[in-house]
Every structure is written in structure tokens, then in C-alpha cells.
Amino acid sequence: MAIIIDGKKVSQKIKDEVKEKVAALKAKGIETTLAVIQVGNDPASTVYVGNKKKACEYTGIRSLAYEIPEETTEEELLKLVHSLNDRDDVDGILVQLPLPKHINEDRVIQAISPAKDVDGFHPQSVGALSIGEPGFVSCTPAGIIELLKRYNIQIDGKECVIIGRSNIVGKPVSMLLLRENGTVTVCHSHTADLKEVAKRADILVVAIGKAKFVTADYIKEGAAVIDVGMDRDENGKLCGDVDFESAVEKAGAITPVPGGVGPMTIAMLMNNCVYSAGLKLED
Ligand code: GUN
Q1: Cis omega before residue 172 (within 30°)?
Q2: 112 CA to middle of ligand 1, Å?
Q3: For residues 99 and 94, what is the distance between their CA atoms, to the nearest angstrom?
Q4: Which atom of ligand 1 is nearest to the CA of 119?
């Protein structure tokens, strides 16, 4: 029976650590500020943005909320982003995705100053990560590494297999595991013998968005299994990309859904914000 990796507990600890860092900066006259922009009122985005605001309140980060109408033009949104880039009192800028169809997401992401890119989505942040330069790391991949480290799961020298090659999880987590000296294989929908490749993994990360796709027969005895999925099963119940019931018997450690990787994303966002504010000390 695997150790259950408790993302809720770890994320709470990280938020408490961020809270202390925010207070220490405040004592030196530096306030940490995150600007969150939501265009339109997609219900899922409203929930995510609400959770980010709550985490800001908890950690003492000042949040500036820009809830702007669906009809906002790309030009108007870019103007807002540029104005936030220019403000010394703003440390992080987050534009909640997805954006309405008439707005080009890539153009908006690229308009955010890399110095304030707390989501880590800007091509400069992604490039910095791939060549080992300092820069913001996107929050879910950073959260995965943090979970492994805090559970003392060794990455150095281990076989790491990632199923899924998305820009927001698969690719960046592969870079991070490589940075930690893992031996990394990235699998995707064209991978031959996926089961055999997955079974080589000491650390298996699954981020494909397919409910319960990975069963026990993809898992090496004792492997650490990180499930990034947020899916619905046949009864509409929240589940991951991994079939937890069978996997838990074979894995050495496993993240549940919910309560595994999910809560880590916002905690790492808060961490990126306070890191950004802390850079002002070095100016
Ligand atoms: N939409 C869903 N997840 C995210 C996220 O992590 N960042 C942003 N900006 N939008 C999202």
C-alpha cells in the first residue's frame, strides 16, 4: 500500500511559509502585490480567481482584481497589462485563461513583463527554465517537484517518465526533473509501447486529461505516481488520470485527486509572488 502524498497539507505549509516571508518583507517596507485579470465571467475561471484571492488574503499578499467585461478588446487588455508592467507597486501579473475567442492568448502572455510573470507562461520564462537560467517556473510543475522533495522522494539518477507533453505541465515538468538530475522520458499519444515505457519509471507523472487512464499495469512496484488529472468518472465524480484504487496497491507513493497536485498550484503562485517582491531588496 502506497504512501498517500498529501498536497493539501504541504500546500498549507507552503502558504504559511509564504505568509512569514510576506510579513518579513512588509517589515522592511515592501508590500507584495499580485494583479489578477479576469476577462468575462466563465464560471470555472471565477472559482479559480476567487481561490487565488483567498490565498492572497491568507498570506498577506495584496491582490488587485481586474474583472473586466467579455467584450474587452485585445488592445484594451494589452493596454491594461502594459500599465501594470509599468507600476513599481505590482510584483506579479496573472491573466486568467482561457480568454474570450477574439483575444489572442499568446500575444497577451507575451505582453506580460517576464519580471512579473508569476504564472511562468512567458516564452522568456520557459526558455530560461530550459537553459537553467533564473526565472519564474509555472506553478503546477513547480508544485510537483516540491511535493517530491518534501516527501524525500529522490529524483537524482532516477527514471522519470511523464505521460503528456503539454506546454503547461508535461514539458516544464520534464525540464525540472532534468534539472534535478533525473533521467527523463516524455511520452505522448504517439508513443509506442506506452505501458512498457511507463513501467520503467521510478517517478511517473501523468498529465493527459483522461479519467483513470493509467492502471496498476503501467506502474513499477514501489514507484512514485504523480497524478495531474482533474477529470470526471462515469458517475460524474472528480477523479484523476490514474486509476487510484488499483494504482495505490502497486505504487510506493501516490497523489490522490482531489487533494494531491491541485492545491499545490496556488501555493506555488503565492511563492512566486513573494519571490518577485523579494527581488526589490536586491535593487
Ligand atoms: N486557467 C487555469 N489554470 C490557470 C493558471 O494556472 N493560470 C492562468 N493564468 N490561467 C489558468
Answers
A1: no
A2: 14
A3: 12
A4: 7
